[in-house]
Amino acid sequence: MSRLAFLLARTLRREAPLATLSVAQSDLLAALAGKRIALIGNARALAETDSGAEIDSADLVVRINRAPMPSPRSHGTRTDWLALATRLSAADRARIGPARYLWMSPKRKRLDWSTATSPGFYLHPLADYARLHAALGAPPTTGAMMIDLIARSAMSSLTLYGFDFFASLSLSGRRTAEQVPHDFTSEADWAADLVARDSRITLRKS
């Protein structure tokens, strides 16, 4: 696809052409099979932990959006996959350096050419977003979408770090829970239920 064709498809919300840039979800899930996965949320409380070495020891480290990493002690240093719902600056791309970008947001107009044409790019289906939105009764966070996606794979384990569902706010911004469109109580209950039902998933308390 040419850059012009991409911009046209993005502007007109033509999902089918954009989807041709993405790896198949089945291939993405297959890449998770048998892996010990660390998914890093952006809760401020994570900065007070010593989780860095444990995070970096995972087979696959997945971070979210601008992926703040204030200290290797608390956050580790590796980023294999980056799940996005926002555009990144060139400086953030260089700092984070993921091997794969995943565009999770239904807001396709935010998707940039560099991300969409990166190796292994993944575009999360709108139907999956809508299903989780209905289950939560509110727009899901990028973190919730990633938990939902990874849980459907044959991964060995999924450990969640930096997920306190906005109790300590976010390292990536100053907004309060009232200023964002998500229902964090609903997400916390949903995640707790998933952890209770799936022994492969562990929520690390910050």
Automatic annotation (TrEMBL):
Species of the source: Sedimentimonas flavescens
InterPro entries: Glyco_trans_29, GT29-like_sf
Keywords assigned by UniProt, alphabetized: Glycoprotein, Glycosyltransferase, Membrane, Transferase, Transmembrane, Transmembrane helix
Membrane topology reported for the UniProt record: Single-pass membrane protein
One Pfam family per UniProt: Glyco_transf_29
Protein name (record): Glycosyltransferase family 29 protein
Subcellular location: Endomembrane system; Membrane
Lineage: Bacteria, Pseudomonadati, Pseudomonadota, Alphaproteobacteria, Rhodobacterales
